[in-house]
Design brief:
Helices cover about 85% and strands about 0% of the residues. The protein is built from five helices and no strands.
């Protein structure tokens, strides 16, 4: 339940932040999405860093903030955090594979979904 609540708040925060940013953007570049993704990465890094330092952060709060809020705000933050973990543990080839496959298969899946939708 705590993850669901965090996810709902993160999703709402993403919507509000994206709208505010996009209203002021004067470019075709997806500034809002990029800004939200980077902000989510900063937040998940901060939370995980604080959780490692502070004994006072319980598992429930960490789940609420990382899986819930950051996951609702942007799954890109989780993706980057997982890759940083792989890199820190010396698994650079696994990280490279994860990054490459996620990007390639993600783009392929978007294209496939679009093609399926057009055929319906």
């Amino acid at each position: 339940m705590i993850v669901a609540l965090g996810g709902a708040l993160g999703s709402a925060a993403r919507y509000v932040a994206s709208r505010l940013i996009q209203e002021h953007a004067t470019t075709a570049f997806p500034v809002a999405t990029c800004a939200v993704n980077v902000a989510g990465c900063l937040l998940i890094g901060l939370v995980c860093g604080l959780a490692c330092k502070a004994e006072g952060m319980g598992e429930g709060l960490k789940l609420f903030l990382t899986v819930g809020f950051c996951g609702g705000f942007t799954t890109f933050s989780t993706f980057c955090n997982e890759n940083m973990g792989l890199l820190r543990n010396g698994n650079s080839m696994v990280a490279a594979l994860y990054i490459s496959l996620s990007l390639f298969l993600g783009l392929l899946a978007v294209q496939a979904g679009s093609a399926i939708a057009k055929s319906l």
